[in-house]
Amino acid sequence: MAAVPAWPPRSTPRLFVDEELHEGPRHIDGPPAHYLLSVMRLKIGDAVKLFDDRTGEWLAVVEATGKRDLQLQLRTLLRPREPVPDLWLCAAPLKKGRVDWMAEKACELGVARLVPVLTRRAVVGNPNTDRLRAHMIEAAEQCGRTALPELAGPVKLTALLREWPPERTLFFADEAGGEPAAAAMRARPGPAAILIGPEGGFDDAEREAIRALPQAVAIGLGPRILRADTAAAAAIAVWMSVAGDW
Amino acid sequence: MAAVPAWPPRSTPRLFVDEELHEGPRHIDGPPAHYLLSVMRLKIGDAVKLFDDRTGEWLAVVEATGKRDLQLQLRTLLRPREPVPDLWLCAAPLKKGRVDWMAEKACELGVARLVPVLTRRAVVGNPNTDRLRAHMIEAAEQCGRTALPELAGPVKLTALLREWPPERTLFFADEAGGEPAAAAMRARPGPAAILIGPEGGFDDAEREAIRALPQAVAIGLGPRILRADTAAAAAIAVWMSVAGDW
């Protein structure tokens, strides 16, 4: 593990900025400013780390503070945007709380893309993509990540399958079971995706359509019933450990 | 997969009862009765599944209902208590919300025992074991489980290590990294435990004490920082997939 520099301290706040960063001055206002001023209580001379999901993570220093805004000076690129294993998570929307947890875990575990998938039995119709993105940003800020999962627009399962990229394996967790996950994943290196159904499961027609896709591989996640968010985190972890960058 | 009988329906409510069940009449009152009467709206003739974490899962039929209580008749044992892989989760308390998720996931993923561990940097001092148990019971009820993780009393890390059973491997997720988890776990079959530190991590003395234990194996869960509840679920899933019953 690389030596940990003494400054800036580990507790230095990290903030995601949704545009390309570069050396020089930067003005911060709105909710991020409130967070830095009132929650983190930053003063002139304090450090902030900014990352943009493009160039990487930058060290910035507070040069001036107002009631509701700050002036930062971006000094140097600390780390380039990290490499991300080529795994997608395709998941049907879940109830609030569970879908938030799933989006956070997908981000922490290093998923490259999160694809909300609309299925027949999904209880929640329209996934709130702003909310999903906000949860992923928060997870990335707290866990020191310099990359965010891409967040695809919601897509119907039929369209997802119809447009499926031929070089990508689609591992799907089916209640009916399948090849044990670790073995199935270790045997098929390369770009991959995990498909998780809604709380009610896939219906028979959907399951047939998925199984009909040449790139689809049914995986078993053990003999116990797992909730959708648990299955997502478990399947991602297994993939990362046998086919990803663990 | 075994054929799914048509009755009782999949939506049949499941209830945990903390004493040994047997054929015959059973009176239900209090919160469980409220749940069955007012939430699930059960009527005479409806089915209920009861499980006790001892004998297994029983089919019961509603014979009479009152305002706040029901009389059930337990007819038959549907399934014996399921086998449980021999994995412990030893985890420092986390903030509410996160620790609840961790307890639920531990139950869903089939952990045999959950051991709350007190460390120096744990933000939360006294884990609320009633709350942990309630979350595990709910997860078991909803996921069709017939076994609950044992919930050990909170123990200080020093005592946990001092009394460590010699035949059990202790995989610990250390920020400093270790052997990739899948390989480390596959190479060491048998009774195991996963040790997860608090949100602030272990301090240096604790890390030394853990590493000094002959049965301890430091595992790496990838290059990304994972929150404690994520690390717990990920490590359990990997163990289940390479050394458990997946």
What this model shows, in words?
- The structure is a homodimer of 246-residue chains.
- Chain A has helices at residues 30-39, 98-108, 129-142, 157-162, 181-186, 204-212, 228-242; strands at residues 14-16, 24-28, 47-51, 56-65, 70-80, 87-91, 113-118, 150-151, 155-156, 169-173, 179-180, 192-196, 216-220.
- Chain A is of the alpha/beta class and 246 residues long.
- The first copy, chain A, starts with 13 loop residues before the first strand and ends with a helix.
- Chain A has seven helices and 13 strands.
- The mean pLDDT of chain A is 93.
- In chain A, strand 4 and strand 5 form a beta hairpin.
- In chain A, the strands form two sheets. In chain A, strands 6, 7, 8, 9, 10, 11, 12 and 13 form an eight-stranded parallel β-sheet that branches. Chain A has a five-stranded mixed β-sheet with strand order 1-3-4-5-2.
- Chain A folds into two domains: 14-80, Ribosomal Protein L25, Chain P (Beta Barrel); 87-243, Alpha/beta knot.
- In chain A, helix 2 (98-108) packs across helix 3 and helix 2 (98-108) runs parallel beside helix 7 (228-242).
- Chains A and B meet through helix 2 and helix 7 of A and helix 2 and helix 7 of B.
CATH superfamily of the largest domain in chain A: SPOUT methyltransferase, trefoil knot domain
- End-to-end separation of chain A in angstroms reads 14 Å
- Major beta-sheet overview of chain A: 8 strands, parallel
Here the CATH topology of the largest domain in chain A equals Alpha/beta knot
Q: Number of helical segments of chain A?
A: 7
- From the spread of the alpha carbons, the general shape of chain A counts as elongated
Strand content of chain A: 25-35%
